[in-house]
Amino acid sequence: MPPHPPEYSTTILTVMEKLHILVAEFKSLxxxxxxxxxxxxxxxxxxxxxxxxxxxxNRVIGCTTKxxxxxxxxxxxxxxxxxxxxxxxxxxxCYCLIWLLDGAATDDVLEIRVDNLGEMNVxxxxxxxxxxxxx
Length: 135
Prior knowledge:
single chain; alpha+beta; Sufe protein. Chain: A; two-stranded antiparallel sheet; 5 helices; 39% helix; globular
């Protein structure tokens, strides 16, 4: 099994390199339940989100579960993300997104598409249907 994302957190990798690692990791997990368990593990690693950030202006509109996202750009022009959800599985996805995108340049963030994440083969993301649930 390939190493999972936290082991790469101190290594400088591009967003696309990280994406390939993440996709390979989830593709290596044989059963859907194992992939979901991995997401639940990642949910436990999600950095704490400040409760004061759980305001309507930070809500991700269109999600079935509640998701709050706070995005800033630091002095080095890198994008910084903080995110939380009321769903543990969604929190796992959020952790994956934080690992991929936090600290990246805006152009690198804009390269990522839902189709890229669908290759993780976890639940609804692997279905090529546009719906509110996919958001």
